Amino acid sequence: MKFTPKKPYLLGETLESLTERMTLAGYPAFRAAQIMDWVYKKFVTDPAAMTNLPKELQAWLTETFTIIATQRVLIKGDPDTTQKLLLKLEDGSLIETVLIKAPDFNDPNDKFRKTVCISTQVGCAYGCKFCASGIAGWKRDLHAGEIVAQIFEIIKLEGGKPTDEGHALPFDNIVVMGMGEPLANFENLMRALGNLNAEWGFKFGARRITVSTSGVVPRIKELAEMPVQFRLAISLHGATNDIRSQIMPVNKKYPLEELIPAARYYNSKHNRMITFEYILIDELNDTYEQADALVKICQGKDSYGENAAPMKVHINCIPYNKVEGLPWKRPSIMRQQAFVKRLKEGGLSVTIRHEKGHKIEAACGQLRLQAERDGGMIEKVEKKA
Ligand code: SAH
Ligand code: SF4
Questions:
Q1: Which ligand is nearest to the CA of 280?
Q2: Is 130 in the pocket of ligand 1 (CB under 6 A)?
Q3: Of 113 and 281, the one with more pLDDT
């Protein structure tokens, strides 16, 4: 479904596009830079509070744009661990944005970090068999302004302290792992991430932004070609076509013999670690057979790239989060540990996302699903473990 906003979203504008609009409306170009400065460096989104703008320009901004595309409907969770925001868009659609506060397992000092998880679509067309976002199908793509607005919702929640350099955002990382398949909404995603990354924008480092994909091969290659250094995570969830196709329909279109070379290509272009996300589902993909196949892929000994070098890859195992109405089960702790041990014995870098403290992290889409099913909220408030 195509959705056209009543007015353009200010947060979807680039400095260039805003300058162009303003020039057409008869304003000098420096005014666009002033507006971006208020928005991205001072976190001020109310035109009336942009005190160095003439009153008439403040009124023009209000008339011309919708400033913030989102409206907070609900917060769930615990401010010390994980909070989920349910946000309503102009057309009544619901999306989720999550703020996760957790130790960083990749950091030797286990430093506490704050990560924002953003959505890129309303629903998802990819229909993975374990995922709440895929259940009701795809409704529409988010506009760039709706993607950026999620960051402002987090700033509102956490109270960021702006500085002249614009470095004081109240979080450390952004992961594009919420509802939707980001690489299926590529243009809006790139525009939004561009605003976060730009000198005139948040100046938020691309290396602190992770894009997660279920494996849209042509877009992975495109991303690999781009000079900007986003981190890439691939939702693998199966190490053979047989298993992966059972739970991820996208594997029929882009099977492992295409996906794995694309991941290797990204590695070769960026010389950086990528991540394989691997949900553990009981007696489906948590077998030794799958673990051994995964080791082969990562070590370059599989048939998807003869004589390939070992990949620069980290495996993030995620015990499956129960979704109402879906048949899968989370494996026992013993099975989870056995799987991880097998991967480590194969020489892989592996972490397992523990349940405590960030229980709702991996289950984006569930809050919206429940809200839409019930017309009210039933998700229990997560307690600090
Ligand atoms: N569409 C993208 C990004 C959104 S999904 C992708 O698939 O990568 C973000 C992550 O949450 C993916 O790794 C996805 O597989 C995982 N996920 C979805 N449902 C889950 C569930 N019920 N339990 C655990 N992880 C889940
Ligand atoms: Fe879509 Fe990702 Fe969920 Fe698959 S896991 S249905 S690609 S959001």
A1: 1
A2: yes
A3: 281
